[in-house]
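Limitations
The structure tokens in this dataset are predictions for the assembled complex, not deposited experimental models. Users should treat interface geometry with appropriate caution, especially where small molecules or nucleic acid strands are included. An illustrative entry is reproduced here so readers can see what is and is not provided.
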Amino acid sequence: MVDPMRFEPGQTRARRRRVRGVLQALRPGRFYLYLTPTFAFLAVFAYYPPLLAFYRSFYDWDGVRIEKWAGIGNYVNMFHDEVLLRSVWNLAQLTVFAVAVSVVFPLLTAELICSLRNRRAQFWHRVLLVVPMVVPIMVQLLLWKFIYDPNVGLLNALLRLVRIPSQAWLHEPKLALYSMMFMAFPFVGAINVLIFLAGLNNIGQPVFDAAKIDGASVIQRFFRIDVPLVKGQIKLIVILTIIGTLNGYGTQLILTDGGPGYSTMVPALRMYQQAFRFNHLGYACAIGMALFAAIFGLTFINMKLMRTDYE
Amino acid sequence: MSSEEALGNSPAARLRAWTPVFVAVVAALASDCGGDVSVNPSIAASRVIRMVPWVYMPSADMEISEENPFPREAIRLLAREWERLHPGVRIEFMVAAQEQSAYLTWVETQCRGGTIPEIIFYFPPGDKLANQAWVLPLDTFLEQPNKYVPGNRHWRDLIVPACLAPPWMAQDGHNYFIPVDIFMTSLFYNTAILEKAGVHLPIETWAEFMDAHRRIREAGYEPFWSRAMWSLWPRELMGQLMHDEPTFRRLDVLDPNGRIDPEENARGAYLDIIGIHESRFHEYLRLMKEWSRYWKTGFSFNKSPDSVNLFRAGRLGISWDGALNLSDYENDPYVTFDFELGWFPPMTKASSPFASARTPERIPVPGTCFYVTQSAVDNDLLEPVLDWLMFLTTPGNVAKLTQEETGIKIPPAILGAKVDPVLAPVLAQVTELTGILPIYWGLSPEAEDNFDRIFELYLMDELTLEQALARMAKWTDFGVREAIRDNQTLTNPEDRWDLSRW
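Predicted assembly:
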């Protein structure tokens, strides 16, 4: 076999250079081959299931036996499914609230931390925010379950101290959804704060100095400089929150199972019930597709509405 | 030898170096594909029965501690004993998720994937698994003698009859599980609270029972709540309190045996024999609403606030709880008050014109139920699996299992099994489930789930009677359609209902 790297005395310098160049260009390309298994797994585990779900959403399918072409029947049924429609209303309330608190409170917290002159104090505030992240979600849920317990819960114990009657926080239809919203208290998710902090730190001292020279107050600086310049971060957090809220059903499943009645039912939980409790997998696939479309649509709208100049 | 060979760089040397690896890979592949490669004979001969023993899972450590208060090993010892009788077959116990929905999802996933263990625990009557033919009907095996019990003619004769009665049969009318223990409920009266409220035991009628609730509340305590207020419990209770013989006879027609089987239940709902719009059903709702006024605030049929701590703290007058918790309460250092066991009194005409005046029976519910899965057939293990279950369900072995010294004592589902003296009086009241009017039985999982949610909202005054009835009627229709559809697509045509008989 001819070794392309070995040159005979008669070969010109230019040719040698050309061959060497081609080989050098090809060499990094080889590393892309190593990504093949990753993309293969992605295709099998991340792309194939949704595509299959899309296909199955047109069938009356119970997972094993009954498989009958249903056309758009499953999608039409969604508009007649009172439970699903109620769950969409619950989800809308949860999403609006989640988006609001996941932007406002972390941004304010990041502003306060960013304004600290002492770097060490800044560091410790960041650490204190991040440490609770190690607590598993399940533990947090069980902790809130205890706080809300109508018999021996912390919240009712505090209310009794000030002579306010106990409430069944997660078991009253009128309270359950709001109690669930409040579970994010104090609404300062560490990741969101860190994202905003990174954005604020990127603004640069000269901009703040210029604002100061122009006589901008703290409020003016916040609304006219900080908020516009962290718009990219706001957009990211809004998208992540929408995706998380629309997909999420773990809290409802563990704490209330969508009850009492349907007061905390969300579409993702309805999808889970249809798939794994009632064996209506075709219909569950259709709900999943609708959720995907909703997430995609909301993300697209968000991208359009919150266009940033430096994208 | 050339220098290349000496260094192991020659093609021949490289081939020699790779030969063991090559042979190992081929052997591994061949053994996996069932190739004719000789393997260790002891491994080849060993067949493994996989089992999810649920609450009887042997503990890793038999030392009692705070983290391990009730260690168990009885099933492991029984398995070793059985294995000695059956050389070449091994029983392997599999740990399962303790959280119910996680476990159910796991079971379904394994069934769909064809990797489910040969014996699993599942909740009765197991319609979901039976409808998909993931588990095997056991009727024919139950008719055979249990060879481990001398003189036994039918295996089913060993089992508490109520556990195999129609409510626990699958939709196709077959029995799919072998119960090992039963669950029975009881009323636990806090006698100290009752004394303060001026309530005297025994309570003779439903009217007195309601009056006791009122007095307990006036005395400043919670009158009534339950550890797990599933709608099934009050439904069955009311089905007895409001039993009506003529209506019952109109339902019990396809197989008139004093019980309403799944087909008769579906037919009853289909023909509106005890329909949502019938006055008896309205009365049932009224009585339940009246009673629910005394339940713990924020009750729900699914994720209800639990009664245990309320009772232990001495703040609950009457607790409806599992009878097996008796030994728990007796050994509980927090339970410093006296309590008595009791049961619901009959309902008289003073409470309702539909009252049956019959004393409610204390119905046992199958507890730990073992199902034989399709894997037993696929892996050619059906015979040893059934043999092991027969061995496990002899009175002696069930006693070892359910009454283990270090574990919680559980009432056995096998007749003649010796029990702890504490449980003996409760077990003496076990009755066979007969003649209960099905006020509402779930026709499909989705209909049942929604029915409960609507019922819950009605009891919480979130829905008016008319709104609740309209929605319940809708879900009943849905349930009937689903039940018929599921039944008519069963694999075995013999199991399909003959709708022309309806």
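Some entries come with short summary sentences. For this one: Residues 1-9, 15-45 of chain B have pLDDT under 50 and may be disordered.
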